TrEMBL record:
Sites where the protein binds substrate: H96
GO molecular function, one term: oxidoreductase activity, acting on the CH-OH group of donors, NAD or NADP as acceptor
NADP-dependent oxidoreductase domain span: 4-250
Positions of the record's site feature: Lowers pKa of active site Tyr: K63
Organism superkingdom: Bacteria
Keyword Oxidoreductase carried by entry: yes
Catalytic residues in the record: Y38 (proton donor)
Family to which this protein belongs: Belongs to the aldo/keto reductase family.
InterPro entries: AKR, Aldo/ket_reductase_CS, NAD(P)_OxRdtase_dom_sf, NADP_OxRdtase_dom
Sorted UniProt keywords: NADP, Oxidoreductase
Name used for this protein in its record: Aldo/keto reductase
Catalytic activities: hydroxyacetone + NADP(+) = methylglyoxal + NADPH + H(+)
């Protein structure tokens, strides 16, 4: 999996959409994070097909939305995703959010059913990796107890100011790779004095500091950038290293730029 992915949520669907994806591909992004709910898979599929770059060079992720979170409908959702992206396999398929409302026996069974469908798709060789998103340890424990194939990835909101240390530790202990969604706190983190101070010490930008912090913690970030200069900057994080003190300072920042989306309280 290319370490830095390209987030595609809320890229405005207008006359610039396709050129945003085109410039990302030209700059070297090959890992695209998509989801059923983003409603842009067909447009992304068009750009990838028209790029002339072989499908095998891309790493494509999608996520099953709550509406298809069951054994019965997950396979249909997967077929729909492939059709929209115009590909015959995905590199990574995730359950977008855990079912976590109401009676635990009920939501645990719902996640387990969706996971059985994922295992079926994986064992048939129709997807290269399967995983989850927004699963905290108490969602993962019942899933792991029933799973025949362990989730390979967990995509979580992670950035300085919201490090999710317990979930990260749990995933690392279970061999689950963590990806960071909103690694820049949707942009709101980038004027934080701690990030600005560390950025100026290294002659880089706060965005690069936030992404580098992810890498150094063993987390794969998926920033979104529509601006060409941002896209370029977000790939250029391999020329400096944070000191252990800087890394700790970022990890221990008080809660900042949290999206407010907690898996146990969202309504989907
Ligand atoms: N699994 C989930 O539940 C979940 C939830 C949310 C998001 N995601 C995924 O994670 C991806 C990233 O998260 P996100 O889109 O919420 O937020 P983000 O990547 O944290 O932040 C995006 C914002 O940062 C700005 N930005 C990007 N690079 C920059 C740079 N170098 N300097 C200054 N500003 C910069 C962008 O501006 P411009 O656009 O103007 O360049 C945009 O406003 C999403 O696109 C989606 O694929 C997953």
């Amino acid at each position: 999996m290319p370490t830095i992915g390209f987030g595609t949520w809320q890229i405005p669907i207008n006359e610039h959409f396709q050129s945003t994806i085109q410039t990302a591909i030209q700059l070297g992004y090959r890992h695209f994070d998509t989801a059923q709910i983003y409603n842009n898979a067909a447009l992304i599929g068009d750009v990838i097909r028209e790029s002339g770059i072989p499908r095998s060079e891309f790493f494509l992720t999608s996520k099953i939305w709550a509406s298809h979170r069951s054994f019965e409908s997950a396979e249909d959702a997967y077929a729909m995703i492939l059709e929209q992206l115009q590909v015959d396999y995905l590199d990574l398929l995730l359950i977008h959010w855990p079912a976590a409302q109401g009676e635990p026996m009920v939501w645990q069974a719902q996640n387990a059913g969706t996971w059985r469908a994922f295992e079926k798709i994986y064992k048939a060789g129709a997807v290269r990796a399967i995983g989850v998103s927004n699963f905290l340890p108490h969602h993962l424990v019942p899933l792991l107890a029933r799973a025949k194939v362990k989730p390979m990835v967990n995509q979580l909101e992670i950035h300085p100011g919201y490090p999710q240390r317990a979930a990260l530790r749990f995933c690392m202990d279970h061999g689950i790779l963590v990806q960071a969604w909103s690694p820049l706190g949707r942009g709101t983190l980038l004027r934080h004095p701690t990030l600005e101070k560390i950025a100026s010490a290294h002659g880089v930008t706060p965005a690069q500091v936030a992404l580098r912090w992810c890498l150094e913690l063993g987390i794969a970030p998926i920033p979104k950038a529509t601006d060409f200069h941002h896209q370029k900057e977000d790939l250029d994080i391999f020329g400096f290293e944070l000191t252990p003190e800087e890394r700790d300072e970022l990890t221990l920042m008080p809660q900042t730029a949290f999206s407010g989306l907690h898996p146990d309280t969202v309504t989907f």
